[in-house]
Amino acid sequence: MLTVGTAALLLLVTLLSGLPAVADAKPRKAAAAAQLAEPDLDGDGIADDVDNCPGHPNPDQSDADNDTEGDVCDSTPEPDGDGDGSADNVDNCPSHPNPDQIDSDGDGVGDACDEQQPPPGPDYDGDGVPDEYDNCQIYWNPSQEDVDQDGLGDSCDENNGGPGGGGDGDSDGDGYVDTGDNCPSAPNFDQSDIDGDGTGDACDPFDDRDADQDGVLDAQDNCPSDPNGDQGDVDGDGVGTACDNLERPRMAADCNKSGWTAFNGIYTFRSQRECVKQVPRGKDKRA
Fold first, then answer.
1. How confident is the model at residue 164, as a pLDDT?
2. How many CB atoms lie within 10 A of CB 196?
3. CB 86 within 8 A of CB 93
């Protein structure tokens, strides 16, 4: 039969045998910490179970197409039609390059392609598009066409990739690109070409119109609507005698009252009497 002292000693030995030795306390603590630490195969600081590319370092976790597979390891990336770095399915202007993805009015459509009427502002070329949004600020181009989608409108893009190649700018700002304008350097919004020679009236130096059929082309005729083949211009003011209402007096009545003061050019008068003296012979000189 055990004595009370012996029983107490055996109980103490049993309790002590269940405690770890001091020497191996640290290894056990390190093992526990290792079990708690998450694995990070690529060493990018993102634990494998939440890393969108666990086998490729990508600390920024960029995922342009939002398919949960990081860009650096995405085997099936979404297309980027405009090449601005934003996949089409998340690009707020998928057909217009806009890497900044700016959307000033917050309507989900980027500024680069937002057709909503922009707020009023300066409009240098008067085409209805404020300069802030105009892709050709100095050339009239209300349609804002941009064939090669480089942000520079066709009207002023000397290297666009559209029909006709480069150099299809609208030099005179009349709304017609130079390659189709019959006067590329002179504004002619109606493209009128009355003599049908392919050169618009606004710039045709050889315009062969002769409205009054007097043998002098309208461009050189000092009275294009009144026949005057001799191009007479008595008072030398550039307007032919045939159509100049302020030419030399034709009858005394032209000098009546203050009529004598209306004459200009070579024939000017200081009095009614001087005016009457210039009435051609054979005419009534009574004033």
1. 37
2. 7
3. no
pTM assigned to the model: 0.25
19-30: pLDDT as tens digits: 554 445 455 555
Instruction: Name the pLDDT band for 211 (thresholds 50, 70, 90).
Output: confident
Name the amino acid, one letter, at 272: Q
pLDDT in tens, 47-70: 989 999 998 898 999 887 777 888
**Contact at 8 Å (CB) between 164 and 172?**
no
The string of DSSP codes covering the chain is ---HHHHHHHHHHHHHHTSPPGGGHHHHHHHHHHHHSPP-TT-SSS-TTT-SSTTS--TT---TT-SSS-GGG-SSPPP-TT-SSS-TTT-SSTTS--TT---TT-SSS-TTT--SPPPP---TT-SSS-TTT-SSTTS--TT---TT-SSS-TTT-TT--STT-S----TT-SSS-GGG-SSTTS--TT---TT-SSS-TTT-TT----TT-SSS-TTT-SSTTS--TT---TT-SSS-TTT-TTSS-SSGGGGTTTGGGG--TT---SSHHHHHHTSPTTS----
